[in-house]
Design a protein that fits this description.
Order of helices and strands: HEEEEEEEEE
Largest sheet: 5 strands, antiparallel
Number of domains: 1
Shape: rod-shaped
Number of strands: 9
Amino acid sequence: MALLVALGAMGGSYGLWSEILEISGTVETGTYGANITYCGGCTPSAIISCDIVDSDTLGVTVADTAEVGTNYYCDFDVRNSGTIPLKIHSIVVDPVDPSPLPTGVSVWTTGVVVDTPIEPGGVKGGTVYVSLTGDVSQFTFTVTFNVIPWNQ
């Protein structure tokens, strides 16, 4: 009997002790974004040049004096300007003038590749290369780096 009274008292105390607690507020999950912070070191500079067209896009121009069989290149840096890690989702080369790119033009990047993770505030350096297998006139193209959160 004493046990039943003790258990009853304990149950009653627990019932008085528990209550509903409501919490309200704002949850921020962070931001992601990339900025090209450097474009240069083009070799040879008399034939190939680059500039930052947009925060995530390089513009590259190759002069009509470019020689067949020679690789030309420019260096660049991509910086994570967000607060969460990101990764490169895709690298898109788009012809500007003429469109499409002339036959015999190959473009590729090294250093910054698809699925490359970059920590917040981190910088990843890369190089865009151009190779010619045929005679061409001057041409211009862009290279855009599309990013997504690292865990997608």
